[in-house]
Design brief:
5-stranded mixed sheet; 25% strand; globular; 13 strands; alpha/beta
Amino acid sequence: MSILGVLFRPLFATVLIGVNYSDSVCKVKVVKKRGGSIVEETDREFKILNNELSVDVIKYINKIKSRYAFSYLAIISKNLEQVLVPGVKKNHFSAFNVNEKEYKFVKLPSAFAFILKDDIIQYQNMFKKAKGLDFLFSPFVLLFFKSKSFVSDKPKLFVLQEKDEMCTLVVTRKSILYGSFLPMSAGEQVTNVVNKLPPSLSEDTLVSDTIHSSSTAQGIDDLNTELGGLEDELEDFETFDFDSLSSESSENISGSSESEDGSPMENLHDLGRSTTIINLLNAAIKDFYHNSLYESDFIEEIVFFDCYGISLQAIDNIRSNLMIDFSLVALDLLKELTNIIQIELDS
């Protein structure tokens, strides 16, 4: 930035744009800041058409980015081929069937989070007509940030739960021991959990026998994402003020604010969804305990970050079936996403 740019930068607003979507709706949060303080927040919802972002979403984001010179767009990756490799040595990658030529990774304090390079290109193309994507974050990174307020010397299982997928991490105060990204379908009865899990959770094999082929990596290194810049920032994670990351939601252990207001049909769907959650979490716990790739230890608690307002009936069902101490924390995912954008900009 030029000298004039530095002098006049405080006069311009910083706008943070967070996007999250499911199979039916796309949510966009816009946070406008001046002098480090939030002056305006806007939340919009758009319908998903044919499993793709609508033209209205792209137009809305493009309008904002055209109006504000210092605007930044971010999204959390939802692609299934995401891998968490615990440890600090790269020679462990092959055990998890990770090929560095096909994946991009970010270094966490005691683990590596991977995403396919082809998937990065896919997200770039998704927002090409909205003046480009600025940050692509791994769900493992967001969940790691949130876990810092709850960790102890004993392992805890942290769950980032959305309607269509969940992300898990087993973390202690000193290290990350395990992680998985698991797909699920709302209200669908699971009859064969193995077939619905990533290969690392299969009873028949520890790692996948196939890796998707990779296309050109052109443009990947130009995308200013957490897969690049955030890596350096994470090395100093102990100096972060984690309590500032939307502490109002992390302190709410009593349950989701939306759970009592859901419709009877949605509550019924949630009850079915809870069966899927129970199966997936049981499989993940079993994988952590019995898979020789992980340094397992007894999990003392499950901390469940609810991103959509799960019903109380569903939570009761999960609690009664998992038989592990269980804490429910309501989480505004888009708020947390804009918080991480700011951390990246400040790094």
